[in-house]
Amino acid sequence: MKLVYLDNAATTKPRQEVVEAILPFLGERYGNPSSIYSIARDARAALDEARTKVAKAINARPEEIIFTGSGTEADNMAVKGVAYANSGRGKHIITSAIEHHAVLDSVKRLEKQGFQATFLPVDSYGMVDPKDVEAAITDDTILISIMHANNEVGTIQPIEEIARIAKKHGVLFHTDAVQTVGHIPVDVKELGVDLLSLSGHKFKGPKGVGALWVRKGVKMERYIDGGGQERNKRAGTENVPGIVGLSVALELAVEELEEEMARLADLRDYLIKGITDRVPNARLTGHPVKRLPGNASFCFEFIEGESLLLSLDAVGICGSSGSACTSGSLDPSHVLLAMGLPHEIAHGSLRLSLGHETTRQDLDYVLDMLPGIVQRLRDMSPLGEGISFSDSCECTPDEHSCVENCKYQ
Q1: CA 402 to chain CA centroid, nearest Å
Q2: Helix residue spans in 23-70 (DSSP H)
Q3: The pTM of the whole model exceeds 0.90
Q4: Catalytic residue among 325, 393, 395, 402
Q5: How far apart are CA 76 and CA 107, in angstroms?
Q6: Is 299 a catalytic residue?
Q7: What mean pLDDT is predicted for residues 9-15?
């Protein structure tokens, strides 16, 4: 059976170059980088080289990079570390309603410890309004955390504008860039942020390794107590094989970035048009233009997302109904609900995220399989009674006249 993997926002297949770079550090180059003998110095040299590569990829300084065990840990470290270190001058944090749970749950935990939080709304595209950010700032605000791009619907946020607002008010600004590093240009100086999180397995590196960039001078408490690794910011022997793999993957991704962005955006638009043309009552979610090159996300009315995923899997198509970190939940996506979609429609979500291996032939296979699967599921649902492919409308996003089945209503 043909396998079409379209869940690259959840994880990516490590590149062969990455696997080859990792293997020596699982064997003869096994030294602990904190020791002083030769094989340890070899590991330290590899760690330093990796740190330099990661810093170069995002236009930072090597000493500003802290390696972590994941993007989730990097988010936790940023939010909690800044909050604890700066609580003497304020206890108010601003974030958005559509953040990854690594940020949302960190902020909610801080609320239980006496901090106050503002969860900003988003528009129907999942976009944060910078004016809302500025309006929420108080004399007590110490941190703003807004993600660079959403992991479910792919909307890219106006980070540079929000950063200017944060700087004007003297508030530290963290962005979760797990979905953008290695996929679109990320320059910490151009973005204007103070802290930025990334994760290796999102750009064809290994799982279990991430990084947090912290601008020099930012006051932040250490996240894990123990040894003095990572300049006393994150205790624990560094995952040298993972860190080396992350750095190689990121270096390659940045080298190919411009060409791959154009290729994926072309494939994404082809897939979006194919689905909206062939499947009635399919709603594109996220911003139609300001979105990640490889993200195509939809809600299909009158069906349930889990049944859709299982049906796609039966024909070899791997997709997602939202964040992989919450795939076990029966609740609809908090992102889609925040965007104003009702529960019954949010339950019918599908995210198809393209990657390095994705081809036009893969998408043609999806377009051949998906319409029939959706129709079959609708035929089984009382909510879908009377909906068929002959009902597909000819409306445009700006002008629509259908009463019942317009895909833009």
Answers
A1: 35
A2: 38-57
A3: yes
A4: 325
A5: 9
A6: no
A7: 98
